[in-house]
């Protein structure tokens, strides 16, 4: 070989190795706290305070740490905030959890909690009791209906890896259970405490949090905004700069009045794509009907949610069949969705968790499990940051990298897939046909991808792409030949 070729090859190798090293080092420095100086070294002594009234006293702790403030104030005790409070309190930090409502309180939702959320409930030790008390129903019989009416309903109870794929639980039960768990491990949960503002004092390095209709004020080193999709506090602080992206409806169908005989089914109506609707059964046979508006279809606007909700109930043949002629349904309720992840979920001494940070997957509109996972990631990060004693914006950015790396960076693929589903609904027909052919284990793997349990790019793996492409070709040929494609496959 010519020496000049060898030199060029060596140079290329060195450049590639250099770029790789920079990439690896950048990724490492993006997710570790090593190297940041400690600014509040006194913070690292954990306090084991329980039910302590910070308003009236300053305490000398066993650890010799004098405290007149909480380590962390969390605003909002939904799944995101309460999970964060649980893990931080369990790690021994002084956590204040402020919730504007009184538990048990409703939250408009589809009530479907998927694997990652169930796993965290198990880790908290509350899953079994929720099931035993008949508050949650593990979905055993579940599946999907495609835009052209292909359907598959399979057995999904024993999800891959032994954790159920999904359960339905009313938010009145779920959110109270998580918040009370956080309280049990030491979080100072204060209900009917609606936060009006939070002001940061740079000199003291402390937040002062004020409540509406009250003179009470609380101080803490770190603030976590977990106040849901409107993200009012983070907007007030200038971290979030846009309104929520979309909206979703919810209405309960009275048990015993419908004909739905599965536990959880996703219905893709062609007109509504990339949005969809879903039915989930509660333990008392009540159904939760939701209609998700997902951005991407210029003909489907958030403002027209009520019309779409009515249209689907009256005109979607699969929903009409599932509900029957005599079903009793409550008045439609609605709430907003903040999708796809906020670009910035941190600031000086402050983090955003759950819907407040846009932790809802754009492909599904689901965010309970991401809020819980995000809350856990925030708690683990803050455990390190409090031990280090530095909450500068550059340090807090590490948290953003961590949840992005775990699930948030996948949202861009979800957005792309949304566009593809809206433009080519036949892709969901093909996926449903593939599930029909391959059965329950394929459906469970599909569910893992859809719910962000594994990265969306797994769809490109041959076990999915080859089968779906095959079904796509069959469907295209069938349509070209003018044959009907509707078929149903259901377990007994
Ligand atoms: C109709 C609908 C259906 C949905 N269906 C599903 C589904 O089936 N599965 C799924 O996984 N996801 C679903 N989602 C998304 C899911 O509801 C959210 O992702 C989830 O609730 C996020 O949890 P969170 O803790 O971040 O916020 P939230 O659950 O909204 O909790 C925020 C908490 O903050 C409190 N709060 C707000 N402001 C203040 C304040 N100023 N002071 C004190 N407290 C305050 C609120 O009272 C609330 O308790 C649905 C959403 C909608 C709208």
From TrEMBL:
Keywords: Membrane, Transmembrane, Transmembrane helix. Pfam families: FAD_binding_3. It comes from the Eukaryota. The chain crosses the membrane at residues 6-25. Residues 70-387 form the FAD-binding domain. Gene3D superfamilies: FAD/NAD(P)-binding domain. Signal peptide: none annotated. This is FAD-binding domain-containing protein. It comes from Batillaria attramentaria.
